[in-house]
Amino acid sequence: MYLISAGIGRTGTFIALDVLSRYGEEHDKINVIEFVKAMRKDRMTMIQNADQYVFLYHALYVYFRRKANFISRTEFIELYGEIEKPEKRRRLRNEFNAVISLKPHYTADDYGTGRRYMKLSFTNSVLPVVYQG
C-alpha cells in the first residue's frame, strides 16, 4: 500500500524554516507558534505532524547557531585559491570542526531504540533515529 501525499506538511515546514530564518536574521527574534498558526489559517494542514514541527525547531536551532560567513565569489577565490598553504588549511580545519560540533550525540539508548525500529529505515546500514516524546 502506498500513501499519497500532497506534500503540504513538508512544504509547510520548509516554508516556515525559510520565512522564520530570514525574519530572525532581520529582527533578531522569531515566534514559531504564531507563524505556524498564521500559515494554517490559509492552508489547514501546513506542518502536518509533531515530527515536522520538531524538525522545524531543530533546523532553526542549527541555523541560528551557525557562524555564517557569506563571501563573494571573488573573496572565495582569494581565500582558497592557494589551498596548500598551511594557514588556508588551518582555516578549513577550523571550519570543519565547527561543522562537526553541530552533529547530534547519540547514546546507547538511542542505538538500542534504533535497532528495535529498523523496519522504519530505508536501508539496513543506517539506524533510524526515533524521537520519543
Give the helix/strand layout.
Blueprint: H1 8-27, H2 32-42, H3 50-65, H4 73-80, H5 86-100, H6 108-116
Helix pairs in contact: 1-3
Please give a quick description of this structure:
By secondary structure, this protein is mostly helical. Helices cover 59% and strands 0% of the residues.
How does this structure look, described?
This protein has six helices and no strands. It is mostly helical and 133 residues long. It has two domains: 1-65; 68-121, no CATH class. Helix 1 (8-27) runs parallel beside helix 3. The longest helix has 20 residues, at 8-27. The protein is flat, with a radius of gyration of 20 Å. It starts with 7 loop residues before the first helix and ends in a 17-residue tail after the last helix.
- Structural class call reads mainly alpha
Number of helices: 6
| Helix amount | 55-70%
Low-confidence stretches: none
Q: Total number of β-strand segments?
A: 0
Give the averaged pLDDT, no decimals: 81
Query: What is the molecular shape?
Result: flat
Q: Which band does the percent of strand residues land in?
A: under 5%
How many structural domains does the protein architecture include?
A: 2
Main sheet attributes: strand count, strand direction, barrel closure: none
Kindly report the oligomeric state of this protein.
single chain
Spell out the helices and strands N to C: HHHHHH
Radius of gyration: 20 Å
**Span between N and C termini?**
28 Å
Question: Tags for this entry?
Answer:
133 residues, 6 helices
